[in-house]
Design goal:
Helices cover 47% and strands 15% of the residues. With 298 residues, it is an alpha+beta fold. The chain folds into two domains: 157 residues, PhyR, sigma-like (SL) domain (Butyryl-CoA Dehydrogenase, subunit A, domain 3), CATH 1.20.140; 116 residues, Nuclear Transport Factor 2, Chain: A (Roll), CATH 3.10.450. Helix 1 runs antiparallel to helix 2 and helix 3 packs across helix 6. The protein is globular and about 60 Å long.
């Protein structure tokens, strides 16, 4: 299904298959809207939940892809508003009211720019550039997702592209700060035990109420259930864990021996009182690492 396709009516029973097919594309959008592949996945999950809740009252959905992107767009805006309130920061520019009358130009190199650069744009510029230059949507389709008029979309595109090209020439930001010693030590123990295939020792690190999320696949709760999670890894040889950062957050980078140059996906851990209380494993969501700032912390 392409962005410009005129979607026919879709029965609710087929929506779940559509969710799965569009999830990587939705993540590309939400990650750039939030500036993080991790936060982007949170927004995708929120959007899909809202879509499922809306289905009973939606009837036949004539344009399901546009409908789903509209929900994801609104979920991203809600997330940004919550984050702004939490951080107690005010912008000097209203990001939802920027309408500058200029013409759009083609610049596909924008799609490869870092997530941090996208985050410097006001929201209307950011969403318009992502939808057209990263995902290939038309002006009309962007208007349908964002609720903006075509002239407003054109204005946002022109100004957003100009800013991104200007910023692309700036020096790279300084390398992220080193991991705190305690966090590094905890992760290093977990990684060493995984690479030694000492899964019994890993199970001993689990808290009683530990929660596991295999993103885009399943969730488990409690030490007994989550202990089975290591069975799958026990069947795979030579996969390697490494200490790293994903968008400047502590993470475990997972390397496939068939492609050892770059990590295939990543795992996030939460800790409490020296025990693992949360595991978020992106094995079934390898799309999430696309566009991330990845640093192996060695």
């Amino acid at each position: 299904m392409t962005a410009s396709q005129q979607d026919g009516a879709l029965a609710p029973a087929a929506i779940e298959a559509l969710f799965r097919a569009l999830r990587p594309k939705l993540h590309r959008y939400c990650a750039r809207m939030t500036g993080s592949v991790i936060d982007g996945e949170d927004v995708v999950q929120e959007a899909l939940l809202k879509a499922m809740e809306a289905l009973p009252a939606s009837g036949a959905i004539e344009r399901p892809e546009a409908w789903l992107f509209r929900i994801a767009h609104n979920a991203a805006l809600d997330y940004l508003r919550r984050r702004a309130r939490e951080e107690a920061r005010r912008s000097t520019e209203d990001p939802e009211m920027t309408l500058d009358p200029t013409d759009a130009t083609q610049d596909r190199q924008i799609a490869a720019m870092s997530l941090r650069l996208f985050m410097r744009l006001p929201v209307t510029q950011r969403s318009s550039v992502i939808l057209m230059d990263v995902l290939g949507y038309s002006l009309d389709e962007i208007g349908g997702v964002t609720g903006m008029s075509v002239p407003a979309v054109k204005a946002a595109l022109h100004r957003g592209r100009a800013r991104l090209r200007e910023w692309a020439g700036e020096p790279e930001e300084a390398t992220p700060p080193p991991l705190p010693a305690a966090e590094r030590a905890r992760l290093a123990v977990y990684i060493d035990r995984f690479n030694a295939r000492d899964f019994d020792a890993l199970r001993d690190m689990l808290g009683e109420e530990v929660r596991l999320e295999l993103v885009n696949h399943l969730r488990l709760k409690g030490r007994k259930e989550v202990a089975t999670y290591f069975h799958r890894y026990g069947e795979v040889e030579n996969w390697r864990f490494a200490l790293g950062l994903i968008d400047r957050r502590p993470a475990i980078l997972v390397y496939d021996p068939a492609k050892p140059q770059t990590p295939k996906y990543f795992v996030l851990l939460d800790w409490a009182e020296g025990k693992v209380v949360g595991i978020r494993d992106f094995l079934f969501a390898p799309y999430a690492i696309e566009g991330a700032e990845v640093v192996e912390a060695g």
